[in-house]
Structures are given as structure tokens and as C-alpha cells.
Specification:
Elements: E1 3-6, H1 12-17, H2 19-27, E2 31-36, H3 38-47, E3 53-57, E4 74-76, E5 79-82, H4 87-90, H5 96-104, H6 121-131, E6 138-142, E7 144-145, E8 152-153, E9 164-167, H7 184-189, E10 192-196, H8 199-207, E11 213-217, E12 241-244
Parallel strand pairs: 1-2, 1-5, 2-3, 6-9, 6-10, 10-11, 11-12
Antiparallel strand pairs: 4-5, 7-8
Length: 245
Amino acid sequence: MKTITINQPAGLGDIIWIQPILQMFVDKGFTIIYPIIDRYLELATKYLPREGVTYVSIESEFHFKDCFDNPNVIHNNNGYYLPLTYSHRHFPASSLMMSKYLMTQTPLQDWRRFIPRIRDKQREISLWEKINPNNEEFILTNKYFGTPPQTKEREINLTNHSFKIIDIDYRDQDLIEFHPFDWVYVIEKAKEIHFVQTAFSFIADLYASPTAVMHLYDRIGKDDQPRYLKDFEYVQRHPNWVYHT
């Protein structure tokens, strides 16, 4: 049996984005071993199940574990090692997200078709009742990007608004029990969405209202220089996004 070990253990947005790549290899008859950091392992297993794909802890033992610092594809008796986390090194003229498709020669398509719509309504409503108990109209923001503890903040200034503002801050101890997929119901109800590009923007692509006002911001933290290569085009799919560099 042909086996591929994927090296893309984080972040959650990357794990979502490469689901069409995983399906392509499954369709070609490969079995996929996908090591993920423990922070996202349960989420991937629950919300991104795929026949032919086995998610395992990055801390466990698996073929090619000793190769995870190697940026090159490897093929031996244990199968294939595919270092998607280093794909940008092979395609420096491409944006980071697009380079993963170039490395695997995967046709670019609407990745949303490859994401199962699995929800935990009990957790979603529990979060909703905690952050918006009076059922007010609201603007939803997420200024933070990067897998903790490597987190940065994008400045987002909101003016001339009359709605309540709900900020997704996964450093907030009152919200620490909730994960990104628990925010689906909140995202559905938001009048406006202001997100830096993260896993939350992928989830908004899937679930935001067709009438929502949506603003997407580049991943630029304080004192960072604007990036020349942008990942907005062909990645984010909701038609309402307005892009901010």
C-alpha cells in the first residue's frame, strides 16, 4: 500500500487549506499519515475526517519523523515524505498558500467543497450565551494571528459603528475552553466581520451570512513590513470579502 507522510503540523488554516491535496492523493490510492500538533489534533479528527487519512500526534512515533527538518520530498521503502510546510522554499515566486498546490501539482479549486460541515451545536450555543446573552446585533473581530505562543496582533480600527463589538481573543481566560469551530454560530449571526487572515477567515468562508459585511486584513503585525506576495486571491472564497493590506 502506498503511504504518504505529510509535514504540515500547523496552523489550523493550513490544515483546512490542504484538504483538497489530501483528497487528491487518497483518490490516487495513497494512505496518508498526517502528524499534527496536539493543539489541533482533536479538532482535525473531529471536524476534518477523511477516509484514507489518519491524523496522529506530532509527539508520537511515525515513519519519517526524523526527517521533519528536511525541506525535500523523500521516497523510500516507507513510502513518501511530503514537506508541505517548506513548499515556499521550492516556489519562492509563489505565495505561501499557493506553493502547497504547486508542490503537489494539485489543481486549484474551491477548497470549501472538501470540508465536511460538522458542527457541535451544544458548544456553539454555550459560547453564544456567554458572549451575547442579550442577543444584540454585533460586529465580530479577530485581530490575532499565528499559532500560540507565536501570536501577533493586527491593528484594526473600527469607527462610525453602532453595534456591539465581539472580539475573538483566544488569550481570554473566559473563552479559553472554546476552539475556532465553536464560533460557527457566532459567525453566522454577525452583521459585520473584520478578520485578519487566519483559520477564522476560512471558517467564515464556510459559514458567514450572504448578507454580512466582511473585511479581511493581511497578516501584518506591529512594525512588520507589508508583504509583496498576497494570499488573498484564490484562497478566501466568500464573495463579500473586502481586502485590506
